[in-house]
Design goal:
4-stranded antiparallel beta sheet, NO_sig/Golgi_transp_ligand-bd, V4R, V4R domain protein, 171 residues, alpha+beta, binds zinc ion, Muramoyl-pentapeptide Carboxypeptidase, domain 2
Length: 171
Protein backbone atom coordinates (compact mmCIF):
# COMPACT_ATOMS: atom_id res chain seq x y z
CA UNK A 1 0.00 0.00 0.00
CA UNK A 2 1.19 3.52 -0.77
CA UNK A 3 1.94 5.81 2.18
CA UNK A 4 -1.25 7.54 3.23
CA UNK A 5 -2.20 10.57 5.24
CA UNK A 6 -4.98 10.30 7.77
CA UNK A 7 -6.52 12.29 10.59
CA UNK A 8 -7.43 9.40 12.91
CA UNK A 9 -5.54 9.58 16.17
CA UNK A 10 -5.26 7.53 19.35
CA UNK A 11 -7.16 10.16 21.36
CA UNK A 12 -10.22 9.64 19.11
CA UNK A 13 -10.77 6.48 21.18
CA UNK A 14 -11.72 8.78 24.05
CA UNK A 15 -11.26 8.54 27.81
CA UNK A 16 -12.69 5.07 28.40
CA UNK A 17 -12.06 5.11 32.15
CA UNK A 18 -14.02 8.34 32.49
CA UNK A 19 -16.81 7.31 30.15
CA UNK A 20 -17.33 3.75 31.40
CA UNK A 21 -16.77 3.80 35.18
CA UNK A 22 -18.88 0.67 35.68
CA UNK A 23 -18.43 -1.27 32.45
CA UNK A 24 -14.74 -0.46 31.93
CA UNK A 25 -12.49 -1.26 29.00
CA UNK A 26 -14.09 -4.53 27.94
CA UNK A 27 -16.98 -5.81 25.86
CA UNK A 28 -18.03 -9.09 24.29
CA UNK A 29 -16.71 -10.59 21.07
CA UNK A 30 -20.34 -10.68 19.88
CA UNK A 31 -20.61 -6.90 20.19
CA UNK A 32 -17.37 -6.39 18.27
CA UNK A 33 -18.24 -8.85 15.51
CA UNK A 34 -21.82 -7.59 15.21
CA UNK A 35 -20.46 -4.17 14.27
CA UNK A 36 -17.67 -5.48 12.05
CA UNK A 37 -19.68 -8.00 10.02
CA UNK A 38 -22.76 -5.83 9.56
CA UNK A 39 -20.53 -2.94 8.45
CA UNK A 40 -18.59 -5.30 6.17
CA UNK A 41 -21.83 -6.50 4.59
CA UNK A 42 -23.03 -2.95 3.91
CA UNK A 43 -19.67 -1.99 2.40
CA UNK A 44 -19.65 -5.12 0.22
CA UNK A 45 -23.16 -4.38 -1.03
CA UNK A 46 -22.36 -0.73 -1.72
CA UNK A 47 -18.78 -0.96 -2.96
CA UNK A 48 -17.98 -4.60 -3.73
CA UNK A 49 -15.84 -7.20 -2.02
CA UNK A 50 -12.44 -6.06 -3.25
CA UNK A 51 -12.94 -2.42 -2.24
CA UNK A 52 -14.19 -3.56 1.18
CA UNK A 53 -11.07 -5.66 1.74
CA UNK A 54 -8.96 -2.69 0.69
CA UNK A 55 -10.75 -0.40 3.17
CA UNK A 56 -10.34 -2.88 6.03
CA UNK A 57 -6.63 -3.24 5.21
CA UNK A 58 -6.24 0.53 5.10
CA UNK A 59 -8.12 1.02 8.38
CA UNK A 60 -5.96 -1.69 9.95
CA UNK A 61 -2.84 0.06 8.69
CA UNK A 62 -3.58 3.39 10.37
CA UNK A 63 -4.81 1.56 13.49
CA UNK A 64 -1.50 -0.35 13.53
CA UNK A 65 0.56 2.83 13.32
CA UNK A 66 -1.42 4.51 16.09
CA UNK A 67 -1.44 1.37 18.25
CA UNK A 68 2.30 0.86 17.83
CA UNK A 69 3.24 4.45 18.59
CA UNK A 70 0.94 4.70 21.64
CA UNK A 71 0.92 1.26 23.19
CA UNK A 72 4.38 -0.13 22.33
CA UNK A 73 8.00 0.96 22.68
CA UNK A 74 9.51 1.25 19.20
CA UNK A 75 12.99 1.78 20.63
CA UNK A 76 13.23 -1.82 21.86
CA UNK A 77 15.19 -4.41 19.90
CA UNK A 78 13.18 -6.79 17.74
CA UNK A 79 12.56 -9.76 20.04
CA UNK A 80 11.71 -7.54 23.03
CA UNK A 81 9.38 -5.54 20.81
CA UNK A 82 7.64 -8.71 19.62
CA UNK A 83 7.36 -9.93 23.23
CA UNK A 84 5.66 -6.63 24.15
CA UNK A 85 3.34 -6.93 21.14
CA UNK A 86 2.48 -10.48 22.17
CA UNK A 87 1.70 -9.30 25.71
CA UNK A 88 -0.37 -6.33 24.51
CA UNK A 89 -2.50 -8.46 22.15
CA UNK A 90 -3.09 -10.98 24.95
CA UNK A 91 -4.01 -8.28 27.47
CA UNK A 92 -6.47 -6.79 24.99
CA UNK A 93 -7.99 -10.27 24.52
CA UNK A 94 -7.34 -9.75 20.81
CA UNK A 95 -5.32 -12.83 19.91
CA UNK A 96 -2.44 -15.07 20.89
CA UNK A 97 0.64 -14.20 18.82
CA UNK A 98 3.60 -16.35 18.00
CA UNK A 99 6.37 -15.74 15.55
CA UNK A 100 7.09 -18.60 13.22
CA UNK A 101 9.79 -17.18 10.96
CA UNK A 102 12.21 -14.30 11.47
CA UNK A 103 14.63 -13.25 8.78
CA UNK A 104 15.95 -9.92 10.03
CA UNK A 105 18.47 -9.58 7.21
CA UNK A 106 15.83 -9.81 4.46
CA UNK A 107 13.05 -8.33 6.63
CA UNK A 108 10.74 -11.30 6.14
CA UNK A 109 8.55 -12.66 8.89
CA UNK A 110 5.77 -15.14 9.45
CA UNK A 111 3.42 -14.47 12.36
CA UNK A 112 0.63 -16.69 13.60
CA UNK A 113 -2.43 -15.48 15.52
CA UNK A 114 -4.60 -17.98 17.29
CA UNK A 115 -8.02 -17.39 18.87
CA UNK A 116 -8.11 -14.29 16.67
CA UNK A 117 -10.79 -11.77 17.57
CA UNK A 118 -11.95 -11.31 13.98
CA UNK A 119 -12.27 -14.81 12.64
CA UNK A 120 -11.93 -17.63 15.17
CA UNK A 121 -15.04 -19.79 14.96
CA UNK A 122 -16.36 -18.29 11.71
CA UNK A 123 -17.96 -20.52 9.08
CA UNK A 124 -15.49 -21.95 6.55
CA UNK A 125 -15.71 -20.03 3.26
CA UNK A 126 -12.39 -20.81 1.53
CA UNK A 127 -11.46 -17.11 1.67
CA UNK A 128 -9.30 -15.41 4.29
CA UNK A 129 -11.12 -12.85 6.43
CA UNK A 130 -8.55 -10.87 8.36
CA UNK A 131 -7.94 -7.91 6.05
CA UNK A 132 -7.92 -5.58 9.05
CA UNK A 133 -5.23 -7.69 10.76
CA UNK A 134 -3.13 -7.67 7.57
CA UNK A 135 -3.20 -3.88 7.59
CA UNK A 136 -2.70 -3.75 11.36
CA UNK A 137 0.51 -5.76 11.10
CA UNK A 138 1.70 -3.67 8.13
CA UNK A 139 1.07 -0.52 10.21
CA UNK A 140 2.83 -1.91 13.28
CA UNK A 141 5.88 -2.94 11.21
CA UNK A 142 5.85 0.44 9.46
CA UNK A 143 5.80 2.31 12.77
CA UNK A 144 8.50 0.06 14.26
CA UNK A 145 10.93 -0.05 11.32
CA UNK A 146 10.03 3.01 9.23
CA UNK A 147 9.69 0.72 6.20
CA UNK A 148 6.65 -0.31 4.19
CA UNK A 149 5.72 -4.00 4.34
CA UNK A 150 3.24 -6.08 2.43
CA UNK A 151 1.26 -8.44 4.64
CA UNK A 152 -0.70 -11.38 3.31
CA UNK A 153 -2.85 -13.74 5.33
CA UNK A 154 -2.11 -17.20 3.95
CA UNK A 155 -4.13 -19.25 6.47
CA UNK A 156 -7.25 -18.22 8.36
CA UNK A 157 -9.89 -19.91 10.50
CA UNK A 158 -12.27 -19.21 7.62
CA UNK A 159 -10.09 -21.23 5.23
CA UNK A 160 -10.19 -24.13 7.68
CA UNK A 161 -6.73 -23.54 9.19
CA UNK A 162 -7.76 -22.90 12.83
CA UNK A 163 -5.11 -20.17 13.12
CA UNK A 164 -4.31 -17.08 11.08
CA UNK A 165 -0.89 -17.06 9.45
CA UNK A 166 0.56 -13.86 8.02
CA UNK A 167 3.52 -13.49 5.71
CA UNK A 168 5.21 -10.13 6.14
CA UNK A 169 7.72 -8.93 3.56
CA UNK A 170 9.49 -5.63 3.14
CA UNK A 171 8.48 -3.81 -0.04
ZN1 LIG B 1 -8.00 -14.97 9.98
Amino acid sequence: MEPISYSFKWSDLGDIELGRPNLGNSTSVVTYRLMQYSLRNVLEMELGKEATQHFFYKAGYIAGIEFCTHALDIKKEFYDFIADLQKALKELNSSILRIEKTDLENQQFTLVLSEDLDCSGLPITDATTCDFDEGLLAGIFKAYTGNEFSVTEVDCWSTGARVCRFEINIK
